Amino acid sequence: MSALVRSSDPTGSAVFPPPPGRHYRCTPWQFVVVAEERNFTRAALKLGLSQSALSGIVRRLEERLGVRLLARTSRSVAPTEAGERLVRTLTPMLRELDQSFADLSEFRDRPAGTIRITSVEYAAKTIIRPALIRLLAKYPDINVEVIVDYGLVDVVADRFDAGVRLGEQVAKDMIAVRMSPDIPMAIVGSPTYFERHAFPENPEQLVDHRAINLRLPTTGVLNAWRFIEDGREIRVHVGGPLAFNTIELILDAAVDGLGLAYMPLDQVTEHIASGRLNRVLADSTPPLPGYHLYYPSRRHASPAFSLFVEAVRYRA
After folding, report:
1. Is 233 left (phi over 0), alpha (psi -120 to 50) or beta?
2. What pTM was estimated for this model as a whole?
3. Which of 51, 220, 228, 236 has its CA 20 to 30 A from that of 242?
4. In CATH, what number does 108-182+290-312 get?
5. Do residues 272 and 278 touch, judged by C-beta distance below 8 A?
6. Architecture of domain 185-284
7. Residues contacting 36, CB < 8 A, separation 6+
């Protein structure tokens, strides 16, 4: 029986069979899966092996190398120092193999493969989701996994194919593809909130207000609100009783009258039109720079990935 050594899954693993004639002999690839999963049961399920067979494979690899690769207890499995070094050595090779097998989709009638994207919530909802409706209807063999994260993710280290962030946040050594125009922003509060607080006439008056903030995971700080003052952009941290890591919860809290929210304008337009929210400081609130898809310049673009890039590319 031919085994899949790694599977296309949320861990960013690759798909390929063991070398011909090797079968379940002590190859290091199965060990990498165990090291990533830190659990023999989960790794065995992923590899299509029994737990005892997988344990024997790893044991024979350790015997062949003459070093302990995994520290085992009754409850956990973790790589030793030698095991960590082997994982670091093998990971680039696995990714190259992953890409090589993905490239074979060029010889298929329809592009196929899995694409992993890290994106902020707003871009995933307003740009990626509509693009996927069109893309996946035409190319059903393409799989796309979108992980929402506001942190500045290293797409290479974290095994993503690409990331989505504001243009100003993309590193210079990355290829960047614009996905959106600049993003109008709005500061809003509910009528019940403004029954208790006066409308601010300038950003300085926000010190007397209560903000509903977005917590950024990379730094742990609250997202700054941007304003234009005397022709230059300033960034202000507005204090308040609430912080969330999703804009949906921030919007709900603003509608509930719990404070002011700093939101993309298109997310609150209907609420403003219906009177559920009031917009303030419109003339002082500049747009954010547009979102960009970014990926390593050395990345070889598979047909599936190229189609995804074109699907999300901004066209004015």
Report:
1. beta
2. 0.64
3. 228
4. 3.40.190.10
5. yes
6. 3-Layer(aba) Sandwich (3.40)
7. 11, 13, 43, 87
